[in-house]
């Protein structure tokens, strides 16, 4: 099952609060075309067939394809350089490390 780091959970909390989503809203990860990557959006509620991960005030909704692709992964947040020389935070997906406790 997809693991979520504390940093990613905090970022999701901030995004959902800033977007004023209803209680139970969260980050939705879908794979409409898995060869093209994943699609992240904010959603007020999960789609009917979504896998719902929740805890510590954070909800993540995964469509069936994304759930299968991310089964052994970790959702994290990393700093990335911007074109103007600054930094921004981006979600990142990495393999789970055995025994890491994430």
UniProtKB/TrEMBL annotation:
It comes from the Bacteria. InterPro entries: HesB-like_dom_sf. This is Fe-S cluster assembly iron-binding protein IscA. It comes from Pseudonocardia thermophila.
